[in-house]
Amino acid sequence: MAHNVLNEYIAKIEGHGFLKYDVKDACVQVKIDEGERLFEKLVIGQSYRDVSFITARICGVCPTAHTLVAIRAVEDAFGVVLNDKIKNLRYALEAAQIVQSHALHLFFLAIPDYI
User: Fold this and answer.
1) 39 exposed, middle or buried (CB, 10 Å; 0-12, 13-18, 19+)?
2) What is the spatial distance between Cα 3 and Cα 61, in angstroms, rounded to a whole number?
3) Which of 19, 50, 98, 111 has its CA 20 to 30 A from that of 87?
4) Residue 32: beta bridge partners?
């Protein structure tokens, strides 16, 4: 007996997505679809100086990641070569953001379900 389950709403994730389960012959196939977000359109026609500030607002959980990627894209477009000090500073900033993002996810999105 085969049947399909579509869950169009998933609670407590950053962003939007849905799960589709296909069950057939005691096998389950899971499809996770997040869809297109098309944030690139936000910065078309904007000054290169504003791109990092605009992309930082994409997500409240990981604004640093969006900011650093936008800065890197602008630097690549202008052919900027970074020295090791700046690269290391950005690696440290990204590592700190990962810790902050995981803490935020745990304490506000996951742990409340278990308390």
Assistant:
1) middle
2) 36
3) 50
4) 19
28 to each of 6, 18, 84, how far by Cα in Å? 13, 16, 48
- Using the 8-state DSSP alphabet, how is residue 112 labeled? G
User: Which of 3, 7, 14, 10 shows the shortest CA–CA distance to 108?
Assistant: 14
Q: Is 62 helix (H, G, I), strand (E, B) or coil?
A: coil
Q: Tens of pLDDT along the chain (115 residues)?
A: 566 666 666 666 666 666 677 777 777 777 766 666 777 888 999 999 999 999 998 877 888 999 999 999 999 999 999 999 999 999 999 999 999 988 988 888 788 888 8
Give 16-22's long-range contacts (Cβ < 8 A, gap of 24+).
Answer: none
Give me the residues paired with residue 22 across strands: 4, 29
Q: Which residue has the tokens 């409340």?
A: 112
- The residue with tokens 């096998």 is 27
The residue behind tokens 């791109």 is 51
The alpha helices in 5-114, defined as continuous H runs, are 40-43, 51-55, 63-78, 84-104
